[in-house]
Amino acid sequence: MSFPLPDSVDALKGMIGREITALRAAVRRSAESPLDGSARTELASPLRSLAVLPASAKTDRASPCLCGAHEPGGSGVCSVLAAIPASAVLLEPVQDDSGAVADFRIVAGNRVRSADWLEAPDHQVGQRLLEARPGAAHSGLLAALADVMDTGKPLDGLVVDYTEQRLGRIHRAPLLYSAARCGEQVLATWQPVQSQAELLTIDAQFLASMGWGHWDLLSGKITWSEGLSRIFHADVRMPWTLEQLCDALVPDDLTALAEFLTSVLAGEEPAWTRIRFLVLGELRTLDLLGRPVTGTDGRAWAVDLVARDLTPQIRSRRRLAETERESDRLRRQTEAERRVADALREAILPTHSEALAAVGLTVAASYRPAEPDAAVGGDWYKCRLLPDGRVLVAIGDASGHGLDAVARMAQQRHALAGLAQTGASAGEITTWLNELVCSDPAGQTATVVVGHLDEDKVLHWADAGHPAPLLLRDGRTEPLGAEQRGPLLGALPGYAYETASAKLRQGDLLVLYTDGMVERRGEDVTEGIARLARAVAAAAPVEPQAVVDALLDDPGMAGHEDDACLLAIRVD
């Protein structure tokens, strides 16, 4: 075909229609008789031709049988049976006393067996139908054939679930029957609805997401496999025309489908393309392989299409790509957060100054996040020598996780460092910190212990909802008295925190910690505090850093579900 490619779906459908019309016209012209141009050969099935025999061919009961089996001058219908690809018989009605059809006698038959356990029809010539097919009455077949005889209306595609007992075994086969009246006889054909090979083919189509279709351009008959019907969500008994396929086409693929159909309708070699269709609002991508069925004149009188549904694979690839993009985004975000957290950790959790040793204190600290990949969280500590000679001691926990918690932790820690320069007491500093947290629009809370060690090694401290420090003295570890303990930071605006005092002695070890060291799911926190106290006592007397390391290496302490921070101070 030399026509240009259509530029719209309607133009494509028009092209298909014109090609089919031209094909049919050419076939009709070639079918005309060379001697008489008015004599045309009608295209019809053998069964339909037998069903509309001219009146001159019809006989009454006194006339010779149409099959020609009774005398040499018969019409020879028996010879037609051998050419039918399905099982076929010619039946003569047997009437009862009232004139109704009670049975049929098998006059002729071909050799096609519809099941391996059923005899070929030609072996049953002369038998009654109910003798040869005892299941005909129960299945409704006998009544259907009698109706054909009585009304003359052909039987087209009756599915009979034929069941029969042979040699003590029950056999069943779904058979598709067609029948037509031939004068005073009935021509019946049948074939399996689906063979085992066809059933396996259906399974294979399902597993491979494939299907096939056959479009007879001359007769207009269309046949779809179960697989193709499943792909397009269509009834296998109502397959789509080529024009209906065009209606489901994604507009952007018009040119590809036009080139494909043009090639196939032109009778060229098998063509392949990838086309997208919109089926019930769902985008489906198909690989199509088209093959023309050509006649001796080279024209394509039928089209075979094989389709493979790529939609599941494309969805999987799309989901995989989206997952990879999301994973890459999260990976970049995590790397960025890690870099920020590393910088924050170095800035806000520094190593301890040698100045502390100069005033008779040995200090060790450690921070361990609950998530191994996290560098820092909401827990923090502070231990440094102030200009007035006091040592600032503090530990806190900003609620939450991630960079938001880190930001609040940094804010509180730096605010503490600034407030400590004022010379205010621990209670006053904690009160100011509370006002800071209360003013945060995020509405988050925090806990903190703030204290000063003066030159006489007296600890003056305030507590805002935080576990009290542990004091190891003479082999015993007990929490400092926390009668002055106040509420969480951010919970009660305007609250004035009190300052308590505790005299430390040479050799005492003060351990400050966050709740990640003592809280366990389903356990009272007092049990966790008691467990930590015993572990501190068991680890002494050693250097503070060894105590901290021992606590974090202890299996009973290391399984924390929250960030954990330890600060150990020994009076030398």
TrEMBL record:
Pfam families: SpoIIE (PF07228)
Keyword Coiled coil found: yes
UniProt domain PPM-type phosphatase: residue ranges: 361-571
Superkingdom in the source lineage: Bacteria
Keywords carried by this UniProt record: Coiled coil, Hydrolase
UniProt-listed Enzyme Commission number(s): 3.1.3.16
GO molecular function, one term: protein serine/threonine phosphatase activity
Listed SUPFAM superfamilies: PP2C-like
Coiled-coil parts of chain: 313-340
Name the record gives this protein: PP2C family protein-serine/threonine phosphatase
Organism the protein comes from: Streptomyces wedmorensis
